[in-house]
Amino acid sequence: MNRSQRILLLDNLLMWMGFFMIIPLITVHFVNGLGWAAGAIGLVLAVRQLVQQGFTVVGGMLGDKFGLKRLICFGLMVRALGFASMAFADSLPLLMASAVFAALGGALFDAPKSAAIVLLTPPEQRPRFYAIQGVSSNIGMAVGPLVGTLLIPYGFQAVSFVGASCYLLSLVFSVLFLPELKANEPKPRGSTMKGLKLALQDRPFLHFQVIQIGFFFLWVQVNVALMLHATQHGGTSLTAWVYGVYAGFTSVLQYPIMKYASKRYSSQVLLSAGVAFMALGLGLMGFTHAPTSILLCTAVFAIGNLLAAPSQQTLIASLTPPERAGTYLGVAALPLAVGGFLGNALGGVLFDYGKHLHFAALPWVVFFAVGAVTALLIGQFQVKKQLDQKTPTAV
């Protein structure tokens, strides 16, 4: 693994740590601490996700036009300013503005960072790299809230500034150590909008993105359905255990399992199997209320995620032309916007509707059905190999 790849992994760790240091504690501070309406904070978080994922395609297009490193660095700076400004948010409009500003920063660096991975990592190394990146993400996801919790007695301002400093530190590493990036292939003629048009006319690529809506619908349930179920049947202590089992499994087991499995099975097979495991874990959750059983179902869900997440990234990279990597990977963020929004919105609604119908298993039946269909569609998807594609390089 070269220095540029290690910097990308370090950046990824700092980004996830800073993000999960702040976002989970927004509800704690503004709802529990200041007494704001939970619905208002939910709206802030939903708008943040929609803005970031919805505008990621713009960040990808700009990265193709102006350079990936430049967009990564600019996005990190904007994200840091957005999170730091939350320290001064004393009204809902100010908090919303800070969240949107932070989301725009994420939209600017997200697709260029993914494109940089494609350019810096040869195809045969990508399953291993994405597995290691998943480990770094989960470490950041676990450490961030812990640090935020330790800082909250000193005020939410301390949480905001330390979380923002993670992005500033990532900015420093990126400026100093990330190379300027470009593909071996010459840039196709035409405007930046032509790159978007090409992505939107790439039927195999778009077909796969539509399928991924189902994956992200399941993926967000770790923060919605699993938390609701754990709180209902075990309180906050069980919620902490569920979160710990999920983060622990994915952090410790993802790399060794993917190292073994990627040598024996294709990314398509692993993604289909991973989604099937995620669906099974959620489906079984509807038939148990005991804390131990809930944790076992969470472990099944986590195993599915550790198989699916790096495999999904590898497949997207294989469908992406290196000379249009930023634009393509920007479009690839849209399934998270749609699937994440639907998963967040419907997760709670299905719980309430299931209670109304006296059918508590309703959300879990729906999750299992969505996951089963998604796994089947992934298995039937025809992956088009780009045999003439040259390995990209960084200069």
Automatic annotation (TrEMBL):
Q: Which Pfam families match?
A: MFS_1
Which residues span the membrane? 7-27, 33-51, 71-89, 95-120, 129-152, 158-179, 205-228, 240-257, 269-287, 293-316, 328-351, 357-378
Q: Is Transport among this UniProt entry's keywords? A: yes
Q: How does it sit in the membrane?
A: Multi-pass membrane protein
Gene3D superfamilies per the record? MFS general substrate transporter like domains
Membrane: present as a keyword of the record?
A: yes
- Tell me where in this chain the Major facilitator superfamily (MFS) profile domain is found: 4-387
Where located? Cell membrane
Main location as per UniProt: membrane
Q: Which domain of life is it from?
A: Bacteria
Q: Entry's PROSITE patterns?
A: MFS (PS50850)
Name of protein: MFS transporter
Species whose genome carries this gene = Deinococcus roseus
